[in-house]
Design brief:
382 residues, Jelly Rolls, Immunoglobulin-like, 3 domains, 5-stranded antiparallel sheet, 5-stranded mixed sheet, 0% helix, disordered N terminus
């Protein structure tokens, strides 16, 4: 798979985490002990070195810290700390060939077969690093990798990696390395580093004084991508409505098209009240990926299940004008037999009483929220 480093310029979308991050201690903030020397990644439990080498932990709580440290100068992307590791260490005298540092951690839960996950981390080359390389990735495994490499390259193929056509040279910003991963099921451990030998690694040299390709790592995340569900195709009666979609997932952005007949096209479960058959398409955005789903709402003009509007035709004594099936925001007007308006309400609430009406014939006119007008004669008897 290929890295996606993308800035999505869509006005109504804002990328955000939707669900629980399965990576423990993802930004190396929770410390068993404040690091006081290099080679103390294990103080940010449960992170560990999987091949017996010496990755580092930097935190503002100590002099082995940030922004200034033995590898260079860098502020954390978030919080107060980050990890660091040498992922290419070739010396001119031919020593340290294929020597690597990695960082690893067990996930909070195993990944589910067939489910899609957003996997990401942020990297920045230390400004003292002599080398910059094109190989930096993340590998997910079911069992832990045996700790028998003795500091050498872990020979696996990472599922998430930086674009191998580019050298990751940025020593100022944090570069996002991200990809959508479809799980085989059972993956429980993550590893970050360079999983390729020196002969398979492209490099730039003479960039700094530390004789390695040294990179800082921060904000590692793995979370499940929410399913995009528009709903099942359905039929409604004319002037009826139906709710589409499903309950919202925090942090996911939604857009329904067309917006016609929807009470809100930017939520996960809008109410649809179309007056003709229509197909709605839901697009949802998460981890820089757009998923779509469609649903067709068929409108039957031969039926109607909304409450029937019934206006009384006769009032005795001091009865109120009670309209059954009354809808909110319905306008009600009452005229005498000479056409004079004697009562009007923009949102009638069945609250007009005939106490002050003389015996006689009146015309009641109800205007429903959809604009339909219903007129009836009312006879008041004393």
């Amino acid at each position: 798979m290929r890295l996606t480093i993308a800035i999505v310029l869509i006005a109504f979308w804002a990328s955000a985490k939707a669900q629980v991050n399965l990576v423990p201690n993802p930004s190396f903030e929770i410390l068993d002990t404040c690091p006081y020397n290099l080679d103390q990644l294990h103080f940010a439990s449960p992170w560990f070195s999987p091949n017996g080498n010496t990755p580092d932990l930097f935190n503002g709580c100590s002099t082995v810290g940030m922004p200034q440290n033995a590898a260079g100068w860098q502020m954390p992307r978030t919080g107060n700390g980050y990890a660091g590791m040498g992922i290419y260490n070739y010396y001119y005298n031919g020593s340290n060939i294929n020597m690597r540092e990695y960082i690893a951690a067990p996930l909070l839960d195993t990944l589910k077969a067939g489910k899609k996950y957003c996997v990401e981390f942020y990297a920045s080359r230390s400004d003292s690093s002599f080398w910059a390389i094109n190989r930096l990735g993340l590998y997910l495994s079911v069992p832990p990798i045996p700790n028998d490499n003795q500091g050498e390259t872990i020979n696996v193929t990472p599922q998430i990696f930086f674009d191998t056509n580019q050298i990751l040279i940025d020593d100022t910003s944090w570069v996002r390395v991200s990809e959508i991963f479809t799980a085989n099921g059972g993956e429980r451990y993550l590893y970050i580093g360079n999983f390729y030998g020196d002969s398979q690694t492209d490099t730039l040299s003479h960039l700094g004084i530390v004789v390695s390709a040294y990179y800082y790592i921060d904000d590692v995340a793995i979370y499940e991508i929410a399913d995009c569900v528009a709903g099942s195709n359905t039929t409604i009666c004319y002037k009826d409505s139906i709710q589409l979609g499903t309950a919202p997932t925090p942090g996911v952005s939604y857009l329904w098209l067309p917006a016609y007949g929807l009470n809100n096209p930017n939520i996960s479960n809008p109410t649809a009240s179309p007056d003709t058959t229509i197909t709605y398409t839901l697009s949802q955005m998460e981890c820089d990926v757009v998923s779509t789903s469609a649903v067709t709402v068929t409108v039957d003009h031969g039926c109607h299940t909304a409450s029937a509007i019934v206006i009384p035709t006769m009032l005795h004594g001091d009865q109120n004008i009670f309209i059954s099936g009354l809808e909110k925001n319905s306008k009600f007007e009452l005229y005498d037999d000479r056409g004079r308006l004697i009562y009007s309400a923009e949102d009638y609430q069945n609250d007009f009483w005939s106490t002050n009406l003389a015996a006689g014939i009146y015309i009641a006119r109800l205007t429903r929220p959809d604009g339909e007008q219903i007129a009836k004669k009312i006879c008041v008897v004393r």
